[in-house]
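Curious: can you check?
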Amino acid sequence: MRVNGAPVATPVQADHGLRLLDYLREVLGLTGAKEGCGMGECGSCTVIIDGRAMTSCLVLVGQVLEAEILTVEGLAAAGHGPLQDAFVARQAVQCGYCIPGVLNSCAALLDRESDPSDAQICQALDGNLCRCTAYNRFYDAVHDAAAARHPNGAGA
């Protein structure tokens, strides 16, 4: 398993049945992913596993022993600093509880689509609930981040 670009020691057999969310928070000390509903419905625990945004409360450690995992703590180093900057600039962060999961969903989208449409952003955020209803600001921030990645309008 690699987390945020760095290899981690192979989890002991007893940890294979832990939820990835608990492993990240309690064993590795990465507390960005939040426990929300614990049923994969709210998206506050979303991380990126092998390029796909997934709720870490529904994934067991034993299922991702060979996976590349990206948490909100690793987004900037993975090239998503402009996304985080855009969320701040657009004041898209309200209470902040959902933001790690939202950022991971948006980062996974931007890795697939260099200039996503509103429909693609909507689909990417389908599993993320924001009680503060900052969704319009999320969309603006994703568009800003996409533009920042391609400052000459080159797109991809």
Q: What stands out?
A: Residues 135-149 form the longest helix (15 residues). The two ends are 30 Å apart (CA to CA).
